[in-house]
From TrEMBL:
<keyword id="KW-1015">Disulfide bond</keyword>
<feature type="signal peptide">
    <location>
        <begin position="1"/>
        <end position="25"/>
    </location>
</feature>
<dbReference type="GO" id="GO:0004869">
    <property type="term" value="F:cysteine-type endopeptidase inhibitor activity"/>
</dbReference>
<dbReference type="InterPro" id="IPR042921">
    <property type="entry name" value="CSTL1"/>
</dbReference>
<keyword id="KW-0732">Signal</keyword>
<dbReference type="Pfam" id="PF00031">
    <property type="entry name" value="Cystatin"/>
</dbReference>
<dbReference type="GO" id="GO:0008234">
    <property type="term" value="F:cysteine-type peptidase activity"/>
</dbReference>
<dbReference type="InterPro" id="IPR000010">
    <property type="entry name" value="Cystatin_dom"/>
</dbReference>
<dbReference type="GO" id="GO:0019226">
    <property type="term" value="P:transmission of nerve impulse"/>
</dbReference>
<dbReference type="GO" id="GO:0140448">
    <property type="term" value="P:signaling receptor ligand precursor processing"/>
</dbReference>
<dbReference type="GO" id="GO:0038003">
    <property type="term" value="P:G protein-coupled opioid receptor signaling pathway"/>
</dbReference>
<dbReference type="InterPro" id="IPR046350">
    <property type="entry name" value="Cystatin_sf"/>
</dbReference>
<feature type="domain" description="Cystatin">
    <location>
        <begin position="26"/>
        <end position="136"/>
    </location>
</feature>
<comment type="similarity">
    <text>Belongs to the cystatin family.</text>
</comment>
<protein>
    <submittedName>
        <fullName>Cystatin like 1</fullName>
    </submittedName>
</protein>
Amino acid sequence: MGVGCRRNPLLLLAVLVLAARLGHFQRWEGFQEKSTSETNMNSTLQFFIEKYNNASNDTYLFQVDKLLQSQMQLTTGVEYMVTVKISRTKCKRNSTTKNSCPIQSKNKLKKSFICDFLMYTVPWMNYYQLWNNSCLESKHTNKNLKFT
């Protein structure tokens, strides 16, 4: 039988197509709320907030304050649909202590956004790509911000 498959690759292709049509291969199930690796989620959120801070004109840096919702789907990598609350920190853009910035506490400087984003990652290759995002200010005004 092994020799026959080598002689007739079209037969092998026909068998694979038939098996696929009959549902013998796993299909992508769409986005689902599943527990994700904390390491993968942290690196995904870190990539997102770096993109946000790089695109922002704000004097202060923002950080993820709260993960509100997370859905994932496995494709050729991992796709995440995420909703987060981000808040302005006390650290300015040129700060060297970016990793340990407390959230802004002064009322005049407090600012938060609710952000939805779709990100494609291949975590084992350290590859991240932000596909879509939208942020709405969470207090007083409804400023709609997008960045790429």
